[in-house]
Specification:
Layout (H helix, E strand, L loop, with lengths): L2 H21 L1 H8 L5 H25 L2 H22 L27 H25 L12 E5 L2 E7 L6 E2 L5 E9 L1 H4 L2 E8 L10 E2 L7 E6 L9 E8 L4 E7 H4 L1 H12 L1
Antiparallel strand pairs: 1-2, 2-4, 3-4, 4-7, 5-6, 5-8, 8-9
């Protein structure tokens, strides 16, 4: 996962919450040392919601909607907990209300004051929440075609991004034939000009052996193909793209760049 993405969303969320707190009557004076004007409160409120919206949009853009929203909510929770425990330490504290003197009760021997216990428990909960959330996010796979190992190139006039669906070894299907799933995406304007996309291991001999067709949503097509036993480090994936104007374009991509785990798996099986 992109560490910069997580740090950025947490920082933007903190700034958003600070702006919203500054816009409130209760915490505005607490944060700035004086009561903000109505205009300043309005601007702070707008800025706060905009910052939170930017953090959400960033998460959804870099990841998919489900993971992006979950990550945003998680970092919002962490940011809120950080602010809750930071407010009591803020340098500009509101004046404390005078309370009538009470006769202090002496705690029983060997007991720990209740406020201290609460602070310790709250601090432990904060650390546990952040640790569990960070661990869960670390195990989440980013979008396939936005991973650093995705291969980018150009077929004819169309730019594309190609990646394997799973970075594990090929899956053995019926009769122990290894299969591998790939995903491909073209630029938005390119999609409107493309009729069909096919993929095959090694160069097609003729137009009838161009391989398996990609299917699914045009912005993320997928195809699962059988892998021949002759695969080695020099094997290539051949992409064939048919345009709506009838033009045909082909491009070779080294298999080891798209799926190094597949090449390694075949090498290990040849040594056995």
């Amino acid at each position: 996962m992109n560490t910069l993405l997580h740090i950025g969303i947490l920082a933007i969320s903190l700034l958003g919450f600070l702006a919203l707190a500054l816009a409130s009557e209760r915490y505005g004076e607490h944060l700035s040392g004086r009561q903000p004007s109505p205009r300043a409160q309005l601007l702070a409120r707008i800025a706060g919601w905009l910052l939170l919206a930017v953090a959400l949009a960033w998460g959804i853009t870099e990841l998919n909607a489900g993971i992006g929203i979950a990550m945003w909510l998680g970092w919002l929770s962490v940011a809120a907990l950080v602010l809750v425990f930071s407010f009591p330490k803020w340098p500009w504290q509101p004046p404390a209300r005078e309370k009538p003197d009470r006769i202090p009760r002496l705690p029983a021997a060997g007991t720990v004051p209740v406020p201290r216990v609460r602070r310790v428990v709250a601090a432990l909960l904060l650390v546990a929440t952040g640790s569990v959330f960070a661990y869960s996010l670390a195990r989440v796979e980013p979008q396939l075609l936005k991973r650093p190992d995705a291969v980018r190139g150009k077929i004819g006039p169309w730019e594309f991004t190609l990646a394997e669906a799973h970075r594990e070894a090929p899956e053995l299907m019926a009769m122990d034939i290894p299969f591998k799933e790939f995903r491909i995406r073209f630029c938005e304007t390119c999609d409107l000009e493309i009729r069909q996309v096919l993929i095959k291991v090694n160069k097609p001999r003729n137009e009838r052996t161009t391989g398996m067709a990609f299917f699914g949503a045009r912005w993320e097509r997928k195809a699962e193909i059988p892998l021949p036993s002759t695969i080695n480090a020099d094997s290539e994936l051949w992409l064939t793209v048919v345009g709506k104007d009838g033009s045909v374009h082909q491009q070779a991509v080294r298999l080891v760049l798209v799926s190094p785990s597949t090449v390694e798996w075949f090498n290990q099986h040849k040594e056995q």
